[in-house]
């Protein structure tokens, strides 16, 4: 059935995104790990419950649009694959480095739950990152 993983360019990856918030003058980090498995076939007589999976790492910097509108993060898997695991997400001032972020002293406490609800078990996921989505981070400006 072709490749057993989504290509890095399509967002089926471990993703670490650093958002720069100009409103509060602090850096907000979202470190989201995507580990995907091939969907199981329900119409085939062949046992397809065993699937291969892969995990990839990508770090990126994301800036707010000049017009102040939020820019969406799009995650698109190849057909037949889904996001099966999200290990960490934080909208706040996380510490650490790519793939090793830890929650800081402040941040939106419900970020991981929101990302899980929006993206888990889906082929495609679109995330926006303003306070009205994740809630206030309660982080003070630098």
Number of domains: 1
Radius of gyration: 16 Å
**Percentage of residues in DSSP E strands:** 25-35%
Order of helices and strands: EEEEEEEEHEH
Low-pLDDT runs of 5+ residues are 1-51, 58-62
**Which structural class should the secondary elements be placed in?**
mainly beta
Structural shape: globular
Number of helices: 2
**Separation of termini?**
50 Å
Residue-averaged pLDDT, rounded?
A: 58
Helix content: under 10%
GO molecular function: carbohydrate binding
Signal peptide: 1-27
Domain SUEL-type lectin: 72-142
Pfam families: SUEL_Lectin (PF02140)
Report on the structure:
It comes from Arabidopsis thaliana (Mouse-ear cress). Residues 1-27 form the signal peptide. The protein is mainly beta and 142 residues long. The protein has one domain (8-134). 9% of the residues lie in helices and 35% in strands. The chain has two helices and nine strands; from the N terminus they run ββββββββαβα. The chain has helices at residues 111-119, 131-134; strands at residues 14-21, 26-38, 53-55, 57-63, 73-76, 81-86, 91-92, 107-108, 124-127. The strands form three sheets. Strands 1, 2, 3, 4 and 6 form a five-stranded mixed β-sheet that branches. A two-stranded antiparallel ribbon has the order 5-9. The longest helix is centred in the last third of the chain and has 9 residues, at 111-119. The radius of gyration is 16 Å and the shape is globular. Mean pLDDT is 58; it is low at 1-51 and 58-62.
């Amino acid at each position: 059935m072709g490749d057993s993983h989504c290509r890095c360019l399509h967002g089926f990856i471990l993703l670490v995104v650093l958002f720069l918030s100009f409103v509060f003058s602090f850096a907000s980090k979202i470190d989201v790990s995507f580990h995907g498995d091939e969907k199981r076939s329900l119409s085939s007589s062949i046992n397809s419950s065993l699937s291969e999976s892969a995990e990839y790492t990508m770090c990126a910097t994301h800036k707010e649009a000049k017009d102040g509108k939020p820019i969406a993060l799009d995650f698109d898997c190849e057909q037949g694959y889904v996001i099966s695991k999200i290990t960490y997400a934080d909208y706040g001032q996380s510490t650490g480095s790519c793939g090793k972020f830890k929650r800081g002293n402040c941040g939106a406490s419900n970020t991981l739950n929101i990302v899980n609800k929006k993206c888990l078990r889906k082929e495609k996921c679109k995330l926006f990152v303003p306070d009205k989505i994740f809630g206030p981070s309660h982080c003070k400006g630098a």
